[in-house]
Amino acid sequence: MLELLRTSTFRLAIFYFGLFAFSAFAVLGLIYWQTVVYSDRQTGETIEAEITGLSEQYRNLGLNGLVQVIEERSSPERGSSMLYLLTDVNGRTISGNLTRWPDAHIDPDGWMRFRLNAPGGRLQDRHLAQATSFLLGGGYQLLVGRDLWERQEFHARITAALAWSAALTLALGLIGGVIASRSTLRRIETVNRAAAGIMAGEISRRIPVRRSGDEFDRLAGNLNAMLDRIEQLMAGMREVTDNIAHDLRSPLGRLRNRIETALLEPPSLDSYHEALQLSIVDADRLLATFASLLDIAEVEAGAPRAVIEPLDLTDLVTGLAELYEPAAEEAGLSLHQDLPTAPIIVRGNRQLLSRALANILENAIKYTPAEGSMSIGLQVEGEMARIVVADTGPGIPLESRDRVFDRFYRLEESRTTPGNGLGLSLVRAAARLHKGEVALTDTTPNASNPGLTVTLELPISGDKGAPLVSS
Ligand SMILES: Nc1ncnc2c1ncn2[C@@H]1O[C@H](COP(=O)(O)OP(=O)(O)OP(=O)(O)O)[C@@H](O)[C@H]1O
Ligand SMILES: [Mg+2]
Predict the structure, then answer these.
(1) Residues 284 and 316 in one domain
(2) Does ligand 1 lie within 6 Å of residue 227's CB atom?
(3) Helices marked H in 340-399 — which ranges?
(4) How many domains does the chain have?
(5) Which of 388, 403, 404 should be mutated for ligand 1, with most atoms under 8 A from CB?
(6) Residue 422 belongs to a domain with what CATH number?
(7) Which domain range does residue 240 map to?
(8) C-beta of residue 164 within 8 angstroms of C-beta of residue 103
(9) 367: Cβ below 6 Å to ligand 1?
(10) Residue at a domain's end among 247, 277, 300
(11) Each residue's pLDDT tens digit, 236-289
């Protein structure tokens, strides 16, 4: 219960109820005040008019006439709330429905306020009254007043109404607050429970969503999406570390075996020399793999150190095509070039783009059997520059096209060719860093030998170009 009172929902509910109660009381108070002021003014006016009327009676009809009028007006049958008292020089009562002169003091406006002690007729005791007096000729004194029981009644009713509504508002506010915060608390508790479960190791646990679409559902949805993403990243990370462990074990084992074999053989400077040299080659290969892994990680993380500058893609692609032409020829492939002469400027990192494109070309040369052909093209398509490398090799089956971008993933058929399965990972990381995309498609519709076409799209530099790397 204490916990409930401390929730922000409860505090909010109480705040609103307080605000509501305050405005309700303010309106009620204003009405009360206005009514009292109005009725007070009316009372004053009535009394004054009565005095004027009676003094006129006195002037016209004399004392007897006045007494008669007073008697008539104050008779209980009339049920009037007016009060009258006429006294002589010695203060003795002559007429009226008040038994004696009230001993109230007269305020500066000439009004007396007092309580009625023993009123007659329907007037009950201890009513509040307001009156004023008037000196007639001959020492006679006339008091005219009014019983204020109506005003008193009104006051009592308003006070009771205020008290009741205060009690009711408070009760409703408390109940509403408790109900509202209980449901909020319950929903938060489910989030807490799920979080505790996840922390305890139930990684795939999710926060239940009610499908009502409220803010809690949106929060739960977002948290679940975040958890999905984290889980996915964790799985990716685990796969990468598994792969690294797996893929680096065999070269390291080979290295170790070579050294061991050399040691077991009869000592000879030549064989030691050869074994050490081969070990250096193996170690270099391992180091290169590590370097590639680190590069990919760095590029994926946004490569804050990479220099991004405007560069001419035509120049870069032409240079690489020339560089790989001999290798293609050596592999028995004809390399067709479809390159523009005009510069195409993109913002990017020259070294990274060269390495990415080099890997695409190396793949085509490596995986396309002799007698095949490959082509390299560069075009501008809208706001994108498009580099297309196509070959007539075995291609990559549809179901593996996503996976070849994963680190260390190689098709089963490629196991015999040297490579680590890191090239395309770098290509994709580089494409993404440049706000571009890489796509794999078939070169021909020939199902048995579709070939592979790699398309690398990069945004052309322009004023509209967003900065590639936020540092
Ligand atoms: N042009 C291609 N034709 C057929 N298969 C390809 C082609 N390019 C890539 N692949 C397949 O995709 C896999 C991943 O390619 P990737 O470039 O990432 O690694 P790799 O070439 O095997 O090794 P690395 O590039 O690290 O030396 C390759 O092992 C191969 O199975
Ligand atoms: Mg490769």
Answers:
(1) no
(2) no
(3) 350-367
(4) 3
(5) 404
(6) 3.30.565.10
(7) 215-300
(8) no
(9) yes
(10) 300
(11) 888 878 878 887 888 899 899 999 999 998 989 998 999 999 999 989 989 988
